[in-house]
Amino acid sequence: MADLYLWAKTLHILAVIAWMAALLYLPRLMVYHAGVPAGSPTSETFKVMERRLLKGIATPSMIATWVFGLWVAYEAGFFSSGWLHAKLALVLVLSGMHGYLAGAVRKFAADRNTVSARTWRILNEVPAVLLVFIVGLVVFKPF
């Protein structure tokens, strides 16, 4: 059973890495996409890239992150720990960001983006900031 726990932990970490890579890259694509004319060949290329990143990497890795993370938390008996509650709250915020980006992919696909490239640059930092706090909670387990 210990081997199964270690596999779950490994898969959780790998899923987090993939999810974070996608959440850091997707808004960066949107920074560039927002700067090109709707319907242009470049815009159409960005639409394909955004859709594939979301559906091929971001969403599957988010699901895997949640599944394996909850499994690890259960097996390790962390559900009574305050740090885990705080981590889960931040991961919920990160999941909300994922949902917001998924909606933005749909808006870009329909040529209905209203968010400026500057705002996308700012939003691009949100996953990184959340990641710092999430990893800090896991490593230090402050409460």
Write structural notes for this entry:
The chain has helices at 2-34, 41-76, 82-109, 117-123, 126-140. 83% of the residues lie in helices and 0% in strands. The mean pLDDT is 97. It contains 5 helices and no strands. The longest helix has 36 residues, at 41-76. It has one domain (2-140). It is elongated. The protein is mostly helical and 143 residues long.
How does the overall form come out from the CA principal axes?
elongated
Estimate the helix proportion, in percent: over 70%
Low-confidence stretches: none
How many domains make up the 3D coordinates?
1
Using only CA atoms, what is the Rg?
17 Å
How many distinct helices?
5
What is this entry, summarized?
This protein is mainly α and 143 residues long.
Provide key terms for this protein.
elongated; mainly alpha
Topology record:
Elements: H1 2-34, H2 41-76, H3 82-109, H4 117-123, H5 126-140
Helix pairs in contact: 1-2, 1-3, 1-4, 2-3, 3-5
